């Protein structure tokens, strides 16, 4: 028993350390001079995990994940050949190569409860970092960008890594409430959603709110009509009471007035225009169409190309699956779509882990116009590991294929 606890503890801390190193400690200013070293450490952890997991790569049950990993590695090689990037650009591939820690979990048969605690820990740690950042306004303490803090939406907007993962806690606490019927968890879910609102990210707010509501309905089918009626009345009352709530008013104003508003579907929408431009003008040969152009290092021709598009108002981070196509090609888009479809609709999981499907559903929906999936991939893959590992079909298929 003590060996089991020790193994679980090692897995927990190794995953936590890996995530923190990959995301450079949320780019905390106090360790800003060591981000390169942290990347190197993360790379060595990946190498260890890669060789530790060698025997798992032939499993039929994880074939789609393997194909994505191979396609991503092909992208890495082609970006060096086609754009003259240095092999050291591999440091930019730590997140795309999140399949390495994923296969490590599979090989070590990691306990799903331990792995779930990793997702909870990272989310809670993020909230503490965000709260501290809020207390330090206007000084930037955490985040990948060191430019001025945005205040155009009624509240300061930061660029702290893994922020799109934050709504995971909403689904987690709702799941805890469903299992234990302890009202405290419902309150915690509501408070986390409040933090999400203060992130003033429209897609995060809308899709996490809708998917959380869908989860509540799904888990309480017998009372679905009452819940919907209560939600309608509560929603109307909420908007009446918050008519002068600065954040909501500014978010609505931004949505109505900006050409990139999420409620605009005309030809003038900047995101649709960006999608069209990226699809038609970025990947220009058959190899880049299939495997993408890769991730850029400063000073390379690929970086210059991405910068040129950004200067026109076209950002890869704003176009979701099209951005994935630009960076990793059509092959990866198809493979990711297959993987997500299988996880969401083919995996039959215990009731206690159903909330992860709604979490991944939120990620997919918000990814339509953001970078929620690819920038948080290591966390998504951890969630997918739990779902596939606990799938009623997974254990049998895995045994037969290894």
Structural class: mainly alpha
Order of helices and strands: HHHHHHHHHHHHHHHHHHH
Sheet having the most strands: none
Instruction: Assign an overall shape.
Output: globular
Tell me what the structure shows:
α1 (2-22) crosses α6 and α7 runs antiparallel to α8. The chain is globular, with a radius of gyration of 21 Å. It has helices at residues 2-22, 24-27, 35-52, 63-83, 99-108, 112-135, 168-180, 183-197, 202-219, 224-241, 246-257, 270-281, 286-291, 301-311, 321-345, 354-366, 372-375, 377-390, 394-401. It is mainly alpha-helical and 402 residues long. The longest helix has 25 residues, at 321-345.
Q: Key features?
A:
19 helices; single chain; 0% strand
Summarize the structure.
The chain has 402 residues and is mainly alpha-helical.
SSE blueprint:
Layout: H1 2-22, H2 24-27, H3 35-52, H4 63-83, H5 99-108, H6 112-135, H7 168-180, H8 183-197, H9 202-219, H10 224-241, H11 246-257, H12 270-281, H13 286-291, H14 301-311, H15 321-345, H16 354-366, H17 372-375, H18 377-390, H19 394-401
